[in-house]
Every structure is written in structure tokens, then in C-alpha cells.
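Handout, page 2. Input:
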Amino acid sequence: MKDQFNIEASLLQLISSEQAYHYNIVPVEAHNGTLLLKTDKASDRLRQELRVVLGKDIELVPETKENMAHYLALNFRTSEGDQSDGLHYSWDFLEKVLMRAKNIGSSDIHFEPYETFCRVRFRLDGKLKEQFVIERSEYPVIVNQLKIKAGLDISEKRLPQDGRITVKSQTGEFDIRVSSLPTLHGEKIVLRLLGKDTDNIQLEELGFTHRELKTYKQAIKKPNGIILISGPTGSGKTTTLYATLKILNDHKTNILTIEDPIEYTLEGINQVQLRENIGLDFASTLRTFLRQDPDIIMVGEIRDVKTANMAIRAAMTGHLVLSTIHTNSAWATISRLVDMGIPAFLIASTLNVSVAQRLVRKLCPYCKEEAKILKETFPVQMPIPKKLTTHYMAKGCHKCYHTGYKGRKAIYEIIPIGKALEGHIKNNDLEIDTYLKEEGIPTLKDNAVDLIRQGITSVEEVYALLMEGS
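Output:
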């Protein structure tokens, strides 16, 4: 006589009849957030997909096909439409993917097609990590669902498209920027998860040292001038700007921003979305801003000489201007502006402070491992820092999703522009290492070494910074 295998009602409620028949699964046990399932199709791919669909850690127990048919018929009712193709890739499924990414702190989701399979990767703490694999035949269903929700043309598969999705959840709502790109094997879709508010962004918690925070706050309290933050894409520049605007925002101040995209909603601030396809670029919007009686202007990025000139003009006419620029160090920002054709004397008279920043991953406190400093630990040209005999390395555990890292921290290089540096800028003297040492201003490299010393990050994570100036 066959095992009756009657499943408890509490377990039956964890999966729907459609899911049970589609995946050929039946629940056995649920304990501490892990769901034990029987199946005749056990594979790592199935486990990964079920983890997203059901929102739990999954363990699969192999079972015979005959027994599975019996267990399903005994415990789940079915109907003619229950096993329809593509059912598990409905918007309901994708919404669970989005919520999982949001809940674990992912910034981007990549849907990528290849010749024989497709995969989904999440960007966690700046690095991509594969979450699960999708059947090649099922991929178009996902693409169409995302494009419909983002208001994109599903019939256009030859050109890139951009759109936006607003997702509502029990904890609020958040926006997603959608970008499609035609590739050899189909359309690659990248979703950027954008925040709706800045409640959790505090200037004091970003990574400034006590001295750096004091220097920066003094610079932003000036009524006019330029605050420039430099760094590569994804280094947290925009977050620093938003945290700054939170401090400056009050009912007596008119603040205008031009952004691409608007990543957070700031109440009390007039935010404008860049639209270059209709001529709404940084330079033209800045020109309009000056007729809107602003006190503070935030420009998402200084990309060209027109924008740079408008920012300088705004600062000279009594406005405080905040912006970002792509350079490797705080002092290299000066060189970049000079290369753009901005006269050195204008830079010297309008720049309040130049900031460089990077985001570094913090070691997982639950699994990091201490190791001895060896000769090959640091770059060849770099001497081993004094009093540093050990360092910590990433290992990986379930609490950090086996990455070895948990969370990120910004490190800064902050150079206030005073009388002495104004002279350096006017004379086009861009060698200021001696000045920085005399003033005790730490560089990005200095702060990286300090994080290694404290066991907050690994040598591997900041290796590129350690090579600079070695």
C-alpha cells in the first residue's frame, strides 16, 4: 500500500496548488525559515528559483516520479489551467524577485540571455552575484512583463529603451529604472532600484572621520561657492550630496536640483529630471535655475565645459552649488577643470572644498579571518604600514550570502580650499603632497590603511587604492 503522506494544513498553505504542480514539489517540513520539499526534479537551479518564488531558504529531497504524482494528487487540487506554461513567470513572480532584491540591499538586478540559458544576478555591496538560472524558452515572458510594466514598446527589440516602474509593498513604495539593451541572444534588462525617501541617509553615518565631517560642514555653510565631489560611478557621490541637502534644507531656502536620475525624493526641494532628448540638459537647466531665485543649486554631474562654466557663474553670483565630477582624487578635480578650459583664478575664487570618495565593502563580522601580514600582502612598491602585523580576510557565510562582506562604508579625501591652496591653483602648481602632510590631511590611501588596521575591510578590497602613489 502506498504511503499516504498527508501534509499538515500549515505546510499546505506555504505553496499554492499551481506552484506544487508546476515545480513538482510537496512540502515536508518548515523550520527556522528553511522549507524542506520533496521533488523528482531536484537541482540547484530549481532550489535557487524556489528560494525567490517562496521567499525562504530551500532544501530539496529527491523522490521518485511515481511517488510525486501520488503525493500531489493526494494533497493538492488541480484544474485544467493550473499547469499553464509561463505561469510562474507572471508579474507576481517578478515582484517577488524585486522585493527579495530590495530586502537584501541589492542596488541592481541583471536579466541576461545567453545561447542555452539565461541568468539573473543581483548587485550586492557593489559586486554582482548570480541568484538563479532561467530556461531559455521562458526568458521572453520575463522581458515582456518588465517592458509592459515600464511602459516600453514590446515590439521593438532592436533598439535600447529606458523606462520606470513603481513597486508598492507593505513597507512603502520604491521606483525602479529599467534599461533594455539588444544583445546577441536577446534583450538584456537591467533594473536599478531607487529609493523614495532619505530617512536613512545621515551625513554623520556615511564614513567621515570627526575632523573630515567638521571640515565639510564648514564648507557647506558658506553662502556661495562650489562643493565638488569626485569619484568613479557607484562610489556613493550622489548619496553624499543628498545627505548634504538634508542638512541645508529648511523653509527659508530655495533649493533646486537637476538630476539623472532622481534617486530619492526630497520634500521641500524642487527636483528636475534630466531629459537630454528634448534639450533639457545640465547646462540649459542651470541657466533657467538662475532665473528661479535659488539659494542652493545641485547639479547631478559636471560633464562638459558648458556645465562647468554655468556652475562657476552661479557660484560667482552668490549661490551655493553642489555637484559631482569624475576624477581619481580631490586634487585631480582642479586639473580636470583646468583641462576643460576653466581659468585657474576662477577655480581658486569659487571652489570651497574638493572631495574625493570611494565605497569599500566591510568585512562580515561573523566570518572574517585574521591572517599575518606577508611581504606579498601589499603592492610591491608599498612598504608595510607601521604597527600593522595582522589583517583580516573575507571568508563567506550564510549571513553575508557567502560573499565575505556585509555592507559598505565611504572613505573620503577632503581638501578645503584656503589662501595657501588658492595660490597653488593660480600658479598651476598641482603638486601638493607636502602641503597635505604638513596640514595632516589624510588621502584616500591613508584612510584605506586605517580601515585595514581596524579590521573593517580587507587588503584585497582596497588594493587599487593602495597602489595609488606607491
